[in-house]
Amino acid sequence: MTGKKYKSFVFLLACFLLCLNVFSQNRKVIPYNSGWSFVKDSSNNLSSIVNLNKPWQKVRIPHTWNAYDVMDDTPGYYRGTGVYKNTIHLNDLSVGKRIFLQFEAAGQEAQLLINRQQIKDHKGGYTQFIAEIGPFLQKGKDNEVILIVTNKFNENLPPLSADFTFFGGLYRKIAIIETSETYFEDHNFGANGIYITTPKVDSSQAKVNVVAQIKNSSNQQKELKLRNAIYSREGIEISFSETRILLKQNETKRFEQALEVKNPRLWSPQSPNLYRLKTQLIDSDGNVLDEINNPLAFRWYFFNEDKVFLLNGKPLKLIGASRHQDFKNMGNAVPDDLQIEDVSLLKEMGGNFLRVAHYPQTKSVLEACDSLGIITSIEIPIVNEITESEEFTQNSLHMQQEMIRQYYNHPSVVIWGYMNEVLLRPKFNNNKERQKIYFENIRILAQKLENLTKKEDPSRFTMIAHHGNFNLYNQVGLNHISDIVGWNLYPGWYGGKIEDFGRQLDQIHKDLKEKPLLVTEYGADVDPRINVANPIRFDKSIEYGIAYHQGYIKDILSRPFVAGAMAWNLADFSSETREETMPHINNKGLLTLDRQAKDTYWLYRTRFNDKPIVKISNWINRATVSDTNFSVQSINVYSNLNKLELFVNDKTVEAATVNDNIANWKTTLLNGKNKVLVRGYSNGGQLFADSTTIVLNLLPASLKSYDFRKPLLMSFGDTRSYTDTLGYVWLPEKEFAFGSWGYVGGKALFRENAPRQKYGVDKNIIGTEEDPLYQTQRMGLNKLIFDVPRGTYHIEFLFAEFNDEQTKLLYNLTGNENQDEKWNLSENLFDIKINGKRVIRDLNVAKESGYFTALQKSITAKSKAKGLIIEFDAQKGEPLINAIKISKIK
Ligand code: GCB
């Protein structure tokens, strides 16, 4: 969606949502996001917290205290307590009203205090809670509101561990709600008390059932009218139902009403026809005491005997992505409009499904899914493991119930989930008897959640997502509890080959024919700074990502029994403990953390959205070695047209056919800037085109003729090309050959000797943002030879030393922990000589900077007739180097 289109979509959506809830005379929803002050407090002692004399910081909601500390070099992030304070002034008009505070979420637990009195506790970081504050407010005074929020580890609260960051804070919106004495509510579950179902839908007629939970908080009996009305998108009332109801004093009761709509316009991804259902409570004088608006849509869905998903009677392959809720430099405190934009990006990509993973997300995301026709699943965050305690069980059940009741009326939701990969980290591995009990407790919890979910909402499907270990889930009994089993499959990433994916699908289908099969996750890390000519697993390159997704898409589409598949993930997301090429980030997103489209996104966009498009790959900064002033380069163009023509520097290159949405040319690019234009015609003859400039830096095989307008940059132990923060491209390492330049001797650590393919060390390198440059290295080299012209050069050596506490892969879904490479380095001490002159003496990288820490050494040197000969003399152990930058200064 273009910026303009997107803005008008957001505007329309905002108008629609406004219609939904604020136009009630008696229910006022007042945003309460400003005026907040915040202070961190780790004492966790109530009296010390509220008497804080610390300087309060002004903040605006949404707010998290972890936006930056998850990204810095120190391991961990603040998991403790934060205190928020504000005031509320009760004005005269509010007198006689019920007054509530509604928090859309607080990560992960919260206590609310009004005028120092504790009035509400809430557990769980991803669901809404509502507290009645009216009785605690004093008229004519600034009443103090304090929220004590903590994201400290709590063994009784999911999630316990997971591959995402558990941000703390008041990170979703807050509102003050005023109602009359009689109002709709289900506040024990943070919900508004209206539950809509559509028990029968077809294109000629739809039946609508509305359950309304009403509270009469007055001490008088109330005779009222309950009215439900359905409005078309144009705002026309098309059906209504009214009943007289009676509520005793202080009574809360549920009422039910049925409505009908003739010839409903059905809801689907192609035509997300939304209606509105208005529920009103009216007194005998015709005054509207309360009013709630909800979206309403008519659709029916089921899995047929072949386990194909059918929407409105037609097969629909569910294609999409999962989504986390955080954003670059914001943590999870992300304004709603940016979150809605994610749904637009998924829609634009051609997706029809969003797995809201691994926890419920802002209502705005679900509202956007309703409006744009994106089918969804939502789940609670029981990830990796459980605690076998009654409290953990109760918290999980309550969270599930909150989720169901809070998101019940979103027509886009068709699946409730409740567990993800709970057998990934089986506890008690050394005690099989004890482990059996643990597994049984997981099964019991799953069954309880299943029963509860079916009781709360029999109209939707249930789902658990497993990792690839079919037999283990089978043995524990988790393959037969939920309606759908989701599979998170990563062959070709954590282990195995891309081609294994199809075989794995066939096997699961064979072994579990009776269940619909969804691939709830698949993906590969893609760091958009990394390109490579010959992609291999774990190189984190765009090219490997493309090969992986191409392979998976083929396998998914060629198997009708795969009801759907969701790429992991729509966008990169924060996972503090990850230390790959972008530490603290999981790079499996099709979009970056700030939502720039990677090539993988374009692959999906061209495959699944029929609107014609031509999109040139993002690989626009390149460098290579060439003896001429040109080089033959591979250019990928993503498109859903059949044939494309390429023009480089205004000259036609031959046409290419598009295979699996990619047209590829091996074509000549010149040193410097290259104008690239690609165009093609749709079946209707309409022209579609894209253009870009590819900047190519050519380094001659003999540097004698290199003008050094750009520095020479090389990353050792590396076969990839890396674009740094300044836009410079670092060459893969190159071995010296006569008449040329490069390294002499040594071995590329982690590549040549690794027992499995592995790229570099998965460890955050402290003190740099260019981690990939430091994560690979050449050990034991003798020399570097650069046959540069006469002159004075600035040489920057980049070093980082590793020790043998090798990082285990965080998410090694192969279950085989022993395949990680081990190494044991002795102390490395070496000298560096340039043209015979010792310029660095006794360098011990580990001692000087610490392990896994970037160390740069800069030397200015004059070249001789043979250029620059840089010798590495080992004093102890082996010399090493990670990268080098050579610039000519004179
Ligand atoms: C999974 C997990 C997900 C991880 C993902 C990964 O299977 O369900 O939470 O983020 O793998 O990237 O490893």
Automatic annotation (TrEMBL):
The EC number(s) this enzyme carries: 3.2.1.23
Limits of the Malectin domain: 761-883
InterPro entries: Beta-gal/glucu_dom_sf, Galactose-bd-like_sf, GH, GH2_Domain-Containing, Glyco_hydro_2, Glyco_hydro_2_cat, Glyco_hydro_2_N, Ig-like_fold
One Gene Ontology term of the molecular function aspect: beta-galactosidase activity
Hydrolase keyword on record: yes
Enzyme class label: hydrolase
Glycoside hydrolase family 2 immunoglobulin-like beta-sandwich domain residues: 197-299
Residues covered by the Glycosyl hydrolases family 2 sugar binding domain: 73-178
Domain Glycoside hydrolase family 2 catalytic: 305-608
Keyword Signal: yes
Signal peptide positions on this chain: 1-24
Gene3D superfamilies named in the record: Galactose-binding domain-like (2.60.120.260), Galactose-binding lectin (2.60.120.430), Glycosidases (3.20.20.80), Immunoglobulins (2.60.40.10)
Keywords, alphabetical: Glycosidase, Hydrolase, Signal
Biological-process GO terms, alphabetical: carbohydrate metabolic process
A Pfam family it matches: Glyco_hydro_2_C
Family: Belongs to the glycosyl hydrolase 2 family.
Protein name: Beta-galactosidase
Lineage, highest ranks first: Bacteria, Pseudomonadati, Bacteroidota, Sphingobacteriia, Sphingobacteriales
